[in-house]
Amino acid sequence: MTHPVFVIDDDDGMRDALVEMLGAEGITARGFASGVDFLERLPDAESACVLTDVRMPGLSGVDLVQRLLEAKGARWPIVVITGHAEVTTAVALMKAGVVDFIEKPFEPQRLIEAIRGSLKLIEWRRNRAEAAEAVRQGLARLSPRERQVFDALVEGRSSKEIAANLSISPRTVEIFRSNVMHKMGAANLPALIRMSLHIEQV
Q1: What b/e string do you get for 147-179 counting C-beta neighbours within 10 Å, with b at 16 or more?
Q2: What's the count of helices (H) and strands (E) in the chain, helices before strands?
Q3: Is the pLDDT of residue 186 over 70?
Q4: How far is it, in rounded angstroms, from Cα 102 to Cα 60?
């Protein structure tokens, strides 16, 4: 899946150069002259990376970042370009959710690495979300008793311990365990435990 990069900079020459540089790397990029222009024509993309300067007339990069984080959240990773005097601001933005900042003057490769890292982050988050959804669907198929067995298994409890805790026979535990594995699509206990790591996301 190709994720676009939206470049926002009021400097026409810089903006065009950045779009051209990204394009030469096989990255789909589109430029916008200001934060206001970008928000007014906010692209309809499920996921994208945004590269924006911090210091711009009208709507500043800081204000733009705050609005984007509210509107798009983690689906649109943001990289900011900043001058030396604005590093403190850039650090604050990273704490707010920006994934990286590029300090001027910068090496082209540094920027490319930051953008590629952001695009990989999109894919990682998407894969993680899909895995979490698969776990959610699996959990929904479990009966209340099967969910109890699932929780006990991922906590590392043995069949004997589960049987004693639930007041059922070890043989019955094994039946429930088999049902859990089948409904969750887990080939073995380690796979089931890995699935449990996604529960907090569902």
Answers
A1: ebbbebbbeebebeebbeeeebeeeebeebbeb
A2: 9, 5
A3: yes
A4: 16
Residue 91 maps to a domain: yes
Question: In this structure, how many other beta carbons lie within 10 angstroms of the beta carbon of residue 82?
Answer: 22
Do 155 and 93 have their domain in common?
no
pLDDT of residue 101: 87
- Would you call 147 helix, strand, or coil by DSSP? helix
- State both tokens at 159: 């069949």
Question: Are the CB atoms for 54 and 88 separated by under 8 Å?
Answer: no
Q: Per-residue pLDDT averaged across 51-58, rounded?
A: 88
- Return the pLDDT at 120: 92
Instruction: Examine the domain organization and report whether 119 and 50 are in the same domain.
Output: yes
pTM of the model: 0.72
Domain span at 123: 5-127
Q: Looking at the 3D structure of the chain, how many domains does it have?
A: 2
**Domain-embedded: residue 165:** yes
Residue 92 C-alpha from the chain's centroid: 20
Per-residue pLDDT, 49 = 94
Do 148 and 55 reside in the same domain of the chain? no
- Which position has the higher pLDDT, 136 or 75? 136
